[in-house]
Each structure stands twice: as structure tokens, then as C-alpha cells.
């Protein structure tokens, strides 16, 4: 099964650009292969439950601090100190960190940051992403860097032949960027490019003759080639139970229409959405009865009801259902899965599928039997609109653009600055070329070395944790330690598949992507065709373990269970999360906790199902599983008590089961990183930061961690995240994680030193 990667942050762009084809459909089908489940974007609540078992080594409760005279006054240290002071609540000295740490750390951040009209939420990671965006903008709007100073790993050090390839790659980037910026041409073309695809869909599924020639299957196939999930999503990825083999999987679309199935229970929202669908589709003609157009949403509602919950989509024990292609096809005979898969697979023979939800396919058959073909046709057209609306500028799609904004609580007419949209467009389509130029500006050999050291330190500390864990039996502990040793750590940027520092390799990788500086929509289609072909080309080959699931500028990180790997793009290894020139407690507190979080995913509610080689198998003893599940009940209840105002103003509670893996990873990662820092600082004491004499270095470790989560969210965005995001809200990731940290409680001398919930 295309397995789920566990990312530090929620998988959405910080500035919440309109969903494009490539990130909504191609990437979202790969929610198992590409979905990054881990640490970065997410929100709070607390319950007093206790776990009695000791699962962590003893910590030093009163650490010896360096002399206060040892203060770092370099520009880097002054910058780091000012960042913390800027974020702290103005009355931070008067607040009790044991009960109100989030306000203490982030009160100033909220006072000094407002959301732009185009933002649904923002936090420290958003600012980091936007800093990276600005750097990328400067790269894309400047001439090819022929004469500037380059790092030792720069392709500029290569011979003239490679240099030529490097410049051609750069020109491809800038052409894509220029075409995206050319709003007059985009506006002049209007709806025409999208209308051509709509016409193809209507011809593929003619209402008058939809029952002949297997029009349904041909239309699903057509949409698949455009990377659009119609009634089913299909794709490839590592087989969870045999992670060196590429498997094909079939799943319900990750998103039916509204952000989650629960949103279809909001009658007012559904009515408004229905009006938008009718408004847009009636303009795409031929003129259709408005009742038929409105029924598209009723059809979606039935599909949503048949779809698995977000929680089930994250659960490998639920979505991993291998079966023969023949048996899968019998679940939904109206759709010729054999034809669709065989065509997409080209010359590769496919006999076995991973079916993420057999129940959905059975229900889909019933729903199709009861649905007028005219409704189905308009549903397909609507999927095209949702996939491609952001690539056109036309009054036809304006109602839907406004609705998408309102759905996130934003100004209906708001939009990011065009250059932001275009930087993301280039990163989405030609990300590895862009990564090559980003890494030279924003990364260094020293940063990579320090990052490797932090991750290695945390692996060592996690082994110690496993040895000290009394609820695991000896055999399971031994295998778990072997799994930690086997974890592959990828830091900074890829040097294979593709090698971003080899211009010829990059040119070959993107050779089928045709880019013009004048054809934005066509460029986008070329990128889509490349992405779909690239995914299906993996069939019949061993899984490429050198591939990365995130481009280098990405401010995020992930753990990939079948690959048993933790990946940290250079984008997340930036100020204020990571800096080689400031005291180590800053980088260990923030980036180190990210690293520990991703490593902890190897042993969370999902990762525990994968052994030291990445195989989905039962390798824990029954007694250890039972002890694990008993301890995780505490996390489920603790986070389930956190809530936000819901659509009806009643409390909408965090789903403690959906967020369980992330909450376990937050707690385990923070503890492992703290222990790693303490051992390093005992060998090499850290200097103090100026102006922060109120805090000990141990306390600043936790301030640095929590600074990462300072943010704001619009109500509607927060509601959508509760239903769709496996991460708790950001404020909850501070309060819940601090409540679960013995080291935090000891560092701040809280009355109770016992964590609320404890696992690793």
C-alpha cells in the first residue's frame, strides 16, 4: 500500500494558496506515499491523568549553569535573544509557566502579528516559509548567478558543459515563473483553457449515451491522466508489507468536495456550497437544469458518507487491504478497474491491488446505480473546476474562489501576492531545480554536520529510553533498538534521484516537462503529465529509497515507515529553529525536538506496526501491545478534552485518536532532544543569551521549542483542521506537550513533577 509518511506539520502551504491540481490530486492520492505525518502545522487542552510506569531515564533536576558573565554577544546571539523577547508576553515574569506557558512564550507574538486577508492561519513556521519564499523570489528574479561567490558544493564549480546545463535549468525555472506572473495573458485567455478540459470530459461521458463503451471508466481514466481524483484515486508506492516492492492502490478521493465528510453535516454550509456549484456549472454550459446541478452536491454528500473517516485513513490496519485486481473489480462492476489500472500501468502487468476501503467501493456501486448520468457528468466537470480553477482568471470561477476563501474564514476577494503564488508554482512543478539554487544560498556544510550530529544524538538517547522502558518485553526491546539503528537520516538535500547538485542529472530528470515563458496553463499541464507518468513509471522496479518526499525549501520534516527514514529538508534548518552560531539549547529545543518527533513516529500508534526493515508486520509481543495501548488511552483522553468553538458555537473537541500519533511523537521527541542536549552541554557548556537572565538554559530549551508554535488561526480554518489534521492545534502542542514533560516540570520547578501522560 502506498504508505503514510509522518510529517512534522500539516500538509498544507503556509499561505494557503488555492488548491492546485498537483498538490490536491497527485499528492493527495499519495497521502499514503507522500502524506507527511509529523511535526509542523497544527493547536490545546489538558486533563489530569497519570501513567505510573517509569519510561524515561532520570534527569538532572538542578543543573549547574555557566556563570552569568559568560554571555554571547555576537550578532547571531543578539538576533536569537531578540526573537525570543519579541515573542514573550509583556508580563512574562508574572505568569506561572506551569499553568500558562503558551501565553508566557507567545503572548507577544500574538500582539505583534496579524493575519493578512489571504491567510487562514499563521505561526512561526509560516514566517520561516515566507522568508524562504522571499529568498526564492530573489533567485528567480535575478540573472543566472554567473559571477557570485559559490559554496564548495555548487555546480558552478563544474566544467563548462555542466555549467551550460545548469544555466538551461535556471532558464526553465525563470520561464515557468514569468509565465505565472503574466497575469494579463492569463486574464486574456480567461476560461478557455479550463473549458477545453471540460469539453473533453463531456465528450468522454455523454449523458445521452453514457451507458455504452464503458464511458464511466474512460472518464475516470481521463481524469486520472490529469491527476484528478474522480470517483476513485489510484496510484503507486511502496507496499507496506514488502517495502522494496512498488504496489498499486485504489482509494476513495482524499477530498470529495468540501474539506471533510463532517462538513456535509452543516446544512447552512452545504446550501451555500450548492449555490456556488450551480452558479459556476451553469456558466460552463450547455445549459443544464439547475436541479441537476444542485444534485451534484447531494451526490458528493453520498460519496462522503461512504468514505472512511480521516482517522481511518491514517490507520494502516484499516487501509491496508491487499486483494487481486479481479476481486477488487467485482466490488464495483460499473467501473472497469482492470482497464483503468492496466492502461495507467502501461506495459506492466498488475494482478494485485491495495484497496484502502473495500466498503467504499461497494457503496459506490449502489450510489452509481441510483444516480442520473447527467448528475455524474456534472460531478466530473466539477472535479475539473476544483482542480484547475486557480490556473485561470475568469468571472466564471470567481464564485468558487470566493467560497474557498470564506471556507477558511478569509476575505472572499483576497489572494496572496502573485509572486508568492508563482514561487510556490515553480517549487511544486520544478522543485528539485529550485532546490539546487536554494540550498546554495541557505545551507552550508557546517549546518549539515550540525544537523547530523543532533539527529545522531537523539537516536542514541532514544536507544537509552527503550532500554529503560519497563513495559516492553526484552525481545521487543531488542528489535526496537535495532530499528533505531536502522533508521536512515536524510539531512539537507538529496544527492540521488535526482542529484540536485548535478545539472545534467536535473536536466534529464525534467526533460519531458515543456516550459514556455508565455503559457502558464500549458506549463501546468506539462508538469501534471510529468508527475503522473513519473509515479506510474515506478511499477516493475524496486522502490527507490533515495527519493525524497519534500523539496529542499520546504519548512517541514517527515518519517517514512516503509523506508524507516527520517528526512529534514534544508528549509526547516533555518533561523529561529536552527542555527550553528547560537547556543545549542536553541537548536536542540526547536530543531532537535523536530528530529526527536520524527524518530518517535517509528514507535507511535502507526509506526509501531513497521519493523526494523520497514515491513508492516506484528513484531511486538501481545503483552507489549496491551501495555502500549493502555498508556496511549491517557493521550487520547488528554487531547480529547481540548476544544475550539465549533460551527454551532458549541465546543468542537480535538479528536484524541486522530491526533494520537502526533501527540506521542511530540512528547517522545521533546524528551529525547532534552536529554541529548544535556549530555552535549555537560561536555561543552553553552553561553547565555543577553537579556534573558530570567531563564535558565534548561528553561530556554523549552522556550525555544514552544516559540515554534506561536501563532494565530481564523475560526473556520481551525474548524477544518480539527476534522482533517492529524496534528492537534498549535497551542495544544505547547500545553499538552509541556504537561507531558517531566523535564519541563523539573526545569520550572512545578509543584507536581509527574507528567500527565508518559510513554517514552
From TrEMBL:
InterPro entries: MetalloPept_cat_dom_sf, Peptidase_M13, Peptidase_M13_C, Peptidase_M13_dom_2, Peptidase_M13_N
Ranges annotated as spanning the membrane: none
Cofactor needs: Zn(2+)
Residue ranges constituting the Peptidase M13 N-terminal domain according to the UniProt record: 97-494
Region (Disordered): 1-23
Keywords attached to this entry: Hydrolase, Metal-binding, Metalloprotease, Protease, Zinc
Bias-annotated ranges (Polar residues): 12-22
Entry-linked PANTHER family: FI17812P1-RELATED (PTHR11733:SF167), ZINC METALLOPROTEASE FAMILY M13 NEPRILYSIN-RELATED (PTHR11733)
UniProt record similarity statement: Belongs to the peptidase M13 family.
Protein name as it appears in the record: Endothelin-converting enzyme 1
Organism: Podospora pseudocomata
Amino acid at each position: 500500500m502506498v504508505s503514510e509518511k509522518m510529517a512534522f506539520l500539516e500538509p498544507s502551504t503556509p499561505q494557503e494558496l488555492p488548491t492546485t491540481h498537483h498538490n490536491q490530486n497527485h499528492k493527495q492520492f499519495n497521502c499514503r506515499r507522500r502524506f507527511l505525518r509529523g511535526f509542523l502545522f497544527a493547536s490545546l487542552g489538558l486533563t489530569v491523568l497519570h501513567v505510573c510506569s517509569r519510561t524515561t531515564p532520570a534527569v538532572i533536576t538542578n543543573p549547574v549553569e555557566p556563570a552569568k558573565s559568560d554571555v554571547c554577544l555576537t550578532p547571531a546571539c543578539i538576533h536569537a535573544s531578540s526573537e525570543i523577547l519579541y515573542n514573550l508576553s509583556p508580563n512574562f515574569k508574572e505568569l506561572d509557566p506551569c499553568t500558562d506557558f503558551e501565553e508566557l512564550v507567545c503572548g507577544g507574538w500574538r500582539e505583534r502579528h496579524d493575519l493578512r486577508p489571504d491567510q487562514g492561519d499563521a505561526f512561526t513556521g509560516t514566517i520561516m516559509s515566507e522568508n524562504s519564499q522571499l529568498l526564492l523570489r530573489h533567485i528567480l528574479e535575478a540573472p543566472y548567478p554567473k559571477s557570485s561567490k559559490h559554496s564548495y558544493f555548487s555546480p558552478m564549480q563544474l566544467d563548462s558543459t555542466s555549467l551550460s546545463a545548469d544555466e538551461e535549468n535556471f532558464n526553465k525555472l525563470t520561464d515557468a515563473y514569468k509565465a505565472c506572473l503574466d497575469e494579463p495573458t492569463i486574464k486574456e485567455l480567461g476560461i478557455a483553457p479550463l473549458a477545453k478540459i471540460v469539453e473533453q470530459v463531456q465528450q468522454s461521458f455523454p449523458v445521452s449515451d453514457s451507458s455504452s463503451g464503458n464511458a464511466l471508466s474512460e472518464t475516470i481514466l481521463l481524469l486520472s491522466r490529469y491527476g484528478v481524483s474522480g470517483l476513485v484515486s489510484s496510484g503507486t508506492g511502496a507496499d507496506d508489507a514488502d517495502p522494496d516492492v512498488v504496489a498499486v492502490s485504489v482509494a476513495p478521493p482524499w477530498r470529495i468536495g468540501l474539506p471533510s465528510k463532517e462538513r456535509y453535516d452543516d446544512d447552512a454550509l452545504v446550501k451555500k456550497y450548492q449555490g456556488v456549484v450551480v452558479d459556476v456549472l451553469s456558466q460552463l454550459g450547455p445549459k443544464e437544469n439547475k436541479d441537476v446541478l444542485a444534485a451534484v452536491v447531494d451526490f458528493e454528500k453520498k460519496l462522503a458518507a461512504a468514505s472512511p473517516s480521516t482517522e481511518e485513513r491514517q490507520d494502516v490496519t484499516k487501509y491496508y487491504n491487499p486483494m487481486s485486481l479481479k476481486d477488487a473489480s467485482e466490488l464495483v462492476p460499473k467501473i472497469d478497474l482492470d482497464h483503468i489500472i492496466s492502461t495507467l500501468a502501461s506495459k506492466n502487468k498488475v494482478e494485485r491491488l491495495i484497496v484502502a476501503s473495500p466498503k467504499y467501493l461497494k457503496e459506490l456501486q449502489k450510489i452509481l446505480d441510483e444516480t442520473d448520468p447527467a448528475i455524474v457528468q456534472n460531478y466530473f466537470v466539477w472535479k475539473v473546476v476544483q482542480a484547475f480553477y486557480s490556473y485561470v482568471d475568469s468571472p466564471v470561477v470567481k464564485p468558487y474562489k470566493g467560497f474557498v476563501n470564506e471556507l477558511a474564514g478569509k476575505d472572499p476577494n483576497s489572494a496572496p501576492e502573485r509572486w508568492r503564488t508563482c514561487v510556490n508554482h515553480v517549487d511544486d512543478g520544478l522543485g528539485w531545480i529550485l532546490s539546487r539554487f536554494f540550498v546554495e544560498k541557505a545551507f552550508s556544510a557546517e549546518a549539515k554536520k550540525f544537523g547530523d550530529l543532533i539527529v545522531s544524538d537523539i537516536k542514541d538517547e532514544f536507544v537509552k529510553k527503550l532500554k529503560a522502558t519497563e513495559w516492553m518485553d526484552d525481545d521487543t526491546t531488542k528489535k526496537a533498538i535495532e530499528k533505531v539503528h536502522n533508521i536512515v537520516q536524510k539531512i539537507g538535500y538529496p544527492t540521488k534521484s535526482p542529484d540536485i547538485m548535478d545539472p545534467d542529472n536535473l536536466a534529464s530528470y525534467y526533460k519531458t516537462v515543456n516550459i514556455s515563458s508565455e503559457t502558464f496553463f500549458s506549463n501546468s499541464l506539462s508538469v501534471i503529465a510529468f508527475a503522473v507518468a513519473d509515479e506510474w513509471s515506478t511499477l516493475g522496479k524496486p522502490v527507490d529509497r533515495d527519493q525524497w518526499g519534500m523539496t529542499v525549501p520546504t519548512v517541514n520534516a517527515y518519517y517514512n515507515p516503509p523506508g524507516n527514514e527520517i528526512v529534514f529538508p534544508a528549509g526547516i534548518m533555518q533561523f529561529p529553529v536552527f542555527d550553528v552560531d547560537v547556543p545549542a539549547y536553541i537548536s536542540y529545543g526547536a530543531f532537535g525536538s523536530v528530529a526527536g518527533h520524527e524518530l518517535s513516529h517509528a514507535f507511535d500508534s502507526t509506526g509501531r506496526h513497521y519493523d526494523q526493515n520497514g515491513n508492516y508486520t506484528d513484531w511486538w509481543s501481545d503483552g507489549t501491545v496491551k501495555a502500549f495501548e493502555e498508556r496511549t488511552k491517557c493521550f487520547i483522553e488528554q487531547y480529547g478534552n481540548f476544544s475550539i468553538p465549533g460551527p454551532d458555537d458549541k465546543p468542537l473537541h480535538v479528536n484524541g485518536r486522530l491526533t494520537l500519533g502526533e501527540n506521542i511523537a511530540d512528547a517522545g521527541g521533546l524528551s529525547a532532544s532534552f536529554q541529548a542536549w544535556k549530555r552535549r552541554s555537560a561536555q561543552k557548556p553553552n553561553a547565555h543569551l543577553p537579556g534573558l537572565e530570567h531563564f535558565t538554559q534548561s528553561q530556554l530549551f523549552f522556550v525555544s521549542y514552544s516559540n515554534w508554535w506561536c501563532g494565530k488561526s481564523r475560526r473556520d480554518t481551525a474548524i477544518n483542521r480539527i476534522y482533517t489534521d492529524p496534528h492537534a492545534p498549535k497551542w495544544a502542542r505547547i500545553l499538552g506537550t509541556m504537561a507531558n514533560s517531566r523535564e519541563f516540570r523539573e526545569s520550572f520547578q512545578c509543584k507536581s513533577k509527574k507528567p500527565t501522560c508518559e510513554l517514552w
